[in-house]
């Protein structure tokens, strides 16, 4: 029987009506999907991610996307553990294909139903055709995996392919569109249809309410709750948090945004892929820091300025094309961006600050810095330094310079092709910093 509410792209939240036998639902073929993604909801995108991370051959996925976009997938049948459709090739021949997903056991369904009864909001969300993340998280905590992961989707196709082929890929992309409309489809694949689930949830809710009321009546007590102060006091007796998971070997792979259709105006897929890769790299470093021995919680840093963050990205993900684009986007010349990258690699934001003209130390810091310079050498060993303003001192007779940063550390600079460039790491000792560029310089302070 065809589920016309979804097969025709009907209103979300009402496609379950007229689904027929609760053990199987059939959805009419969907129209072509040119120019749009296959999934808009987070659970639909998770389904697509499981498909794409399972595939061994990216070319098969691309062909499957084309077939799904072209409307080559026929009516989709959904039943416990399996989805089925006929997918037609360009020459009109059709291949019956199936994708299998492990059903939940009776024990797993019991745990899921108990969890859902305990949290009425989960039932309300499902009835509204939503699958909030906390529902999936609570199910996982109960030992029930609702959404598929890597390797959970098992393809079978009449074309004889032993792995995912364009036909089964097209079917999975089409099902992502259906899941967007109705998450009960996923629950049916896991083994229980909507009608049976709702009946079981209602029966458990009624039984639980009756049991609680009967117990209170036998004791001559009104229905009981839990005092807020008792819950708060129990916080100190909770068990410790579980051991954090081990750090992965590397950041996760960023998405590949190749598509058979042109991107919308103002959308740059290459730039989005780069930003996703950068975000994954930053998240990995933050996780590594959080899992390191002796880690303590640090205050959140201010959001970096666009120009500063562009330098960070250019330094962390090098390449002439990236540097050129980031320079252009922040109004820099390429040579200026390359110099800023050099400073960043020498000492991050602090080195970048002393490179720029915007840094101008206050009178108090200048006074302290001058006193440090005068005490850094014996009078006979002191190099001749001339103030260049802005917390900078140039070595007389040498292409070298010392600069003081906001934190009082000293940075060595050297002149190359008429420009001052960072020449080494910072030090709290100006003599040690200067030795990076002028070892053993002698003279006196001007």
Draw up the topology in text:
Elements: H1 4-7, E1 25-27, H2 42-54, H3 58-69, E2 76-79, E3 82-88, E4 94-100, H4 106-118, H5 120-127, H6 133-141, E5 154-157, H7 166-181, H8 184-189, H9 194-218, H10 228-233, H11 269-291, H12 306-316, H13 320-329, H14 334-355, H15 363-375, E6 385-387, E7 392-395, E8 400-404, E9 410-416, E10 419-422, H16 430-434
Antiparallel strand pairs: 1-2, 2-3, 3-4, 4-5, 6-7, 7-8, 8-9, 9-10
Helix pairs in contact: 2-7, 3-7, 4-9, 12-13, 12-14, 13-14
Task: Characterise this structure.
It is elongated, with a radius of gyration of 32 Å. The strands form two sheets. It has a five-stranded antiparallel beta sheet with strand order 1-2-3-4-5. Strands 6-7-8-9-10 form a five-stranded antiparallel beta sheet. The N and C termini lie far apart (94 Å). Helix 3 packs across helix 7 and helix 12 runs antiparallel to helix 13. A hairpin with a 2-residue loop joins strand 2 and strand 3. It has 16 helices and ten strands. The longest helix is centred in the middle third of the chain and has 25 residues. The protein is of the alpha+beta class and 446 residues long.
